[in-house]
Amino acid sequence: MLSPLVMATLLLFLLGAAAGLLLQKLPALANRLNSGFALLGSLAGLVAAIQIFAQGAPVDGQLWLLGSVHLDMLAALMLLVISTVGVAVALYSFAYIREYQGKGDVAIGALMNLFLFAMVGMVLADNALGFLLCYELVTLTTYWLVKTNPEAAKQSRLYLVMNHIGMALVLIAFWLLCRESSSLEFAALREHHLAGALASLVFLLSFCGFGLRAGFVPLHGWLPVAEPVAPSHISALMSGVMVKLGLFGILRVSIDFLGASQLWWGYVVLIFGACSAVLGVLFALAEHDLKRLLAYHTVENIGIILMGMGIGMIGIANQQPALVVLGLLGALYHLLNHAIFKSLLFMGTGSVMFRLHTRDMDKMGGLAKLMPWTALAFLIGAMAISALPPLNGFVSEWFIYQSLLSMTKLGTSVVAPLAVVMLAVTGAMAVMCFVKVYGICFCGAPRSEHASHAREVPGTMVAGTLLLAAVCLVLGLGAPWIAPHIASYGQALVASQMSVATGATLLPLDSSQAILSPPVIAITLLGLFLIPLLVLAIFKGPKLGRRHAGTPWACGYAYEERMSLTSGGVTHTLRQLCAPLYRKQPQLDLASALHGVSDTSGTTGWLLHGIVLALFILMAVGV
After folding, report:
1. Residue 180 and residue 364: Cα distance in Å, rounded?
2. Which of 209, 405, 442, 489 could lock onto 73 through a cystine, CB 3.0 to 4.6 A?
3. Whose CA is closest to 70, among 228, 237, 242, 185?
């Protein structure tokens, strides 16, 4: 039976959206209700997800809004992701919405609740119609949220065009699936596995269609365009949660419905993931705009998740149960981790913009002293995204390394060793990028008048960012206890396909081989930090002579404003070495081919709406 908390989650989000629409003449009250209902709805969803995990079994039910509902471990994980980020974003929005006072702030709050409702509805739906309607609602609400920025009309149109192309591809894939099974219910799609060329066609359509939502290379064009111009708490939801819906769709279709039956499907996912990881971080290094830099890191991390997914699919096709569990463990853990630390970084950036009103890193500097709590939270997020131990990003990337190394032992392909190298290069460049970001934005002297007069943001904004920083620590230090549960989610996701195909059962993950102990790593690192202090305390000699007052040599600090590095100077050498890739960047971006489309009138948008609506009707009537 479906938990009442799930129904309460959806109802609270709808009430939040209604409050924003009905109380537009009372914006202060409407904004508080918007954020309050979003907070309560997210908390209800969080508790509901934890209940599903505790039960360890799927839950089915009916909702009049969505029809049949099925909460398996994958859907429960997605509900956990949406709800955790939703709680932090709702807290953050109580104060942050002041930045948009008189600029459609009530609409932002109402649309945020509708956005959360649509994402939760999509992961709950167990039929094609409810799934696709929520998927389309996600697209439309995001479009209007981006468009609340009066200077983002072009960016919002590009987002709408690209995601409607993806929606059309997904609709065709679902039409083929539903036509063959003669049903719109996912239960029928799971029982009626397609085979041969038709299955491959459905895989490719869904991979490209959902890929436009996920934003991996070369389908990433809208990400660095639309995400930076959205309100920062909405950017957190888009980058941390919404793009994961594309990955959720790929997993649903390729593994849940099609059984990942073809070996080359897994290699396609792995190769696109590896290329997206390297190119995403390479493009991020060249950015001076902090939000665009974070958007490109989304491209990078989506690639890393795809690598784990591809390994899991290769394991299914090769009948390698341990490889399946390890690959999907890395993918699902990194999906959760990326949602947390990327939302944290976007919210931290929003806090900086709240005081400085700029995204240009070269106009920041010295913020660690003036905004200490924001700086601390951002530092934790930067360390997590750089995969530094003992934080959560390190844990999930370690699992993906382990799955790639396990794959190399099969000796069947050169792809796995190359992928290991590409992942290592990605990690090194990510560290370099966030050393640049934190050093320029938070260290040194202020680089502008606004930076020199910055102060800490309101308490609810600090609470939202620190909450996600704490979750980064919990997911890292608690990995020995959390990872086995996520591994079981991967088992539940693919167990039926492998047992039906071969009668095999998934082997339990050998924790001694794959799971490190982040608490031990944390204690070791702390010990290494304390050892020099201890040595100095023991061997400190007698003071030599008297202390003399005077001005010490300050290593050029008096000229810091003229001598300090810029964001471009830090990466100048790398950008010179990779200049051919940067010149070819537009050719690697599908959005460049659609550049003119976003400048046109609403004709293209209405045409795409018509195509999507026609495909909806065709699917419903044809099935």
Report:
1. 57
2. 489
3. 185
Task: For residue range 299-313, list pLDDT tens digits in order.
Answer: 999 999 999 999 999
Query: Rounded to the nearest 5 degrees, what angle is found at the Cα of 360, between the Cα atoms of 359 and 363?
Result: 120
Whether omega for the bond prior to residue 218 falls within 30 degrees of 0, making it cis, is yes
Extract long-range pairs of 514-517: CB within 8 Å, 24+ residues apart. 514/326, 514/329, 514/398, 514/399, 514/402, 515/479, 515/480, 515/483, 515/484, 516/395, 516/398, 516/479, 517/479, 517/480
How does pLDDT run across 452-468, given as a tens digit for each residue? 888 999 999 999 999 99
Amino acid in the structure at residue 553: W
* CA–CA distances in Å: residue 227 to residues 250, 289, 461, 566: 22, 12, 20, 24
pLDDT of 599: 47
CA dist., res. 157 & res. 591, Å (int):
11
Side chain identity, residue 271: I
- In this prediction the pTM is 0.89
| Radius of gyration in angstroms for the set of CA atoms belonging to the chain, rounded to a whole number | 24
Cα-based torsion angle of the residue sequence 289, 292, 297, 299 in order, rounded to the nearest 10 degrees: -160
Residues forming beta bridges with residue 70, ordered by sequence position: 60
The distance in angstroms from the start CA to the end CA of the chain is 28
DSSP, collapsed to helix, strand or coil, labels residue 430 as helix
What gap in Å lies between CA 200 and CA 262, rounded to an integer? 8
Residue 202 in contact with residue 173, Cβ under 8 Å? yes
DSSP, residue by residue, 328-369: HHHHHHHHHHHHHHHHHHHHHHHHHHHHH---BGGG---HHH
pLDDT in tens, 327-356: 999 999 999 999 999 999 999 999 999 999
**Per-residue pLDDT band at 509 (split at 50, 70, 90):** very low
Under 8 Å between Cβ of 472 and 380: yes
What b/e readout covers 310-338, taking b as 16+ CB neighbours within 10 angstroms?
Answer: bbbbbbbbeebbbbbbbbbbbbbbbbbbb
Neighbours of 533 (CB within 10 A): 9
**Mean pLDDT, the chain, as a whole number?**
83
Residue 523 CB contacts under 8 Å (≥ 6 apart), including other chains? none
The tokens for 428 are: 């090194």
| Structure tokens, 359 | 């995204």
**pLDDT at 116 exceeding the cut of 80:** yes
Q: What is the DSSP string of 223-277?
A: HHHHGGGS-HHHHHHIIIIIHHHHHHHHHIIIIIITTT--HHHHHHHHHHHHHHH
Q: How far is CA 291 from the centre of its chain?
A: 14
Among 84, 49, 40, which Cα is nearest to 472's? 84
Of 411 and 480, more confident: 480
Virtual torsion, Cα 395, 399, 405, 409, nearest 10 deg:
150
pLDDT higher at 610 or 534: 534
Alpha-carbon distance values, 72 to 25, 124, 494 (Å): 42, 9, 12
Quick check: bond before 390 cis, omega within 30? yes
pLDDT band at 106 (very low <50, low <70, confident <90, very high): confident
pLDDT at position 458 is 93
Quick check: 229 pLDDT over 60?
A: yes
